[in-house]
Amino acid sequence: RLHPSRSQWHSKSNSKFCPLQTRTNLSERTSMPLKILLIGKTGEGKSTVTNYLLGKSVAATSSSLASCTKDPQEHVGQWKGIGEEVSIIDTPGLLDSDETNFETLQRLKKAAEQMADGINAVLFIHGIHNVRMDGATLTMMEVLNQVFPEDEFWQRSACVLTHWDRVEAAHREQSLHRWTTELPDHLKRIHCRLNTNNMHVFKGSGDPTCLDGLFPFIQHHVKFVPKIVENVAAGKDSELMDIIVKMQQQVLQQQIKANEDRVALSLKINEQQQEFLKQQMEMQNHFQELMAKKDEDQARKLDLAIREHREAYEQAQLQAQQQQPNPVLGQFVNDVLAPLVPVAVTASESGKCCIM
């Protein structure tokens, strides 16, 4: 189990490293820096992690949603400023910036050029406070699965959970547990092979031992050259462009579906609100009739029922906005309002309030 108090490399299936290739000798290892590729949406902390791992400020960070890294940036330094030489490729999110297809193609090609001598590890950066992956993140991971189809690429991957400080201390263990249990299911739906057995928590720059468990994992793997590097070198831009266009189509399909859902939900809420207003008007009219008849006891009961009816409607409306079943109002009419004022109010089978 991963302990958030100290990051450590671990695997559910094997506690030992499983070599993917024959290790390079020491002279090759020392002559070339370890190379790490960072992937993830803008705003999830890729630049902050880069600065921490290199022990110096080299990548621009931003707390806004605007992408501050338009092009892949390669930063070279020592591990935490004192260790082995490492090179980190800080990539922008594929779906973050408002760019043309050709501009996206150029960014992918630039990233491929920076990976020409191979990569040792791939780090997926994501905020731990966002327990569920949104549609944009899932689409990005699906696209990366197409850009990097090789098992060797994903076997070098690890997850780094950021924004630890955005989760209340009492809920951190729960959030971490949800990540370790739910993330594999999210990725399985899109056939992404991100290594979810290898998770690390970045608690912030103030912890000098944070992410120490990443280094042996990164150091263990020899460099791997992804297929995209060969495609770019061979001038196969059409294959990359096809992936980009499919990505844009998927994003548009998600937006169309989300818009349709919003319209349907809005119509549902408007219809419910109209029915509620009619019921309130009818009950107020009946309240006036009871007062005219000097039936104050029934009027008081109905007056309280009117308020409870309004509160039940507000709760039902909130549930509708959360796209949950909303039987609250119908239950109130059947279980509370009708028995309370049986002469004045009955409930139809549909749960609508009817004034007799």
Task: Characterise this structure.
By secondary structure, the protein is an alpha/beta fold. The chain is built from 11 helices and 8 strands. The strands form 2 sheets. The protein has a 6-stranded mixed sheet. A two-stranded antiparallel sheet has the order 7-8. The longest helix is centred in the last third of the chain and has 56 residues. It is elongated and about 95 Å long. The protein starts with 25 loop residues before the first helix and ends with a strand. The relative contact order is 0.11. The N terminus and C terminus are likely disordered.
Indicate the percent of residues in helices: 40-55%
- Please trace the helix and strand order, writing H or E for each element: HEHEEHEHHEHEHHHHHEE
How far is the first residue's CA from the last residue's CA? Answer: 63 Å
What is the radius of gyration computed over CA atoms, rounded to a whole number of angstroms? 29 Å
Give descriptors for this structure.
8 strands, 356 residues, disordered C terminus, alpha/beta, two-stranded antiparallel ribbon
